[in-house]
Amino acid sequence: MKYFLIVGEASGDLHAAHLMQAIKNTDPQAEFRYYGGDEMQRVGGTLLCHYKHLAYMGFIPVLLHLRTILKGMARCKQEIAAWRPDCVILVDYPGFNLKIAKFVKAQAICPVYYYISPKIWAWKEHRIKDIRATVDRLFSILPFEVDFFEKKHHYPISYVGNPTVDEISQFRSAYRETKEDFCLKNSLAPNRPIIALLAGSRKQEIKDNLCMMCEAAAPYVEQGYQLVLAGAPAIAQEYYDRTLSRLNWSEDQLPRIVRGQTYPLLSHATAALVTSGTAALETGLFRVPQVVCYYTPVGKLISFLRRHLLKVKYISLVNLVAGREVVPELVADGMNLPNLHQHLTSILPGGTAREAQLKGYEEMAEILGEPGAPERAAREMVKRLQK
Question: Whole-model pTM?
Answer without folding.
Answer: 0.82
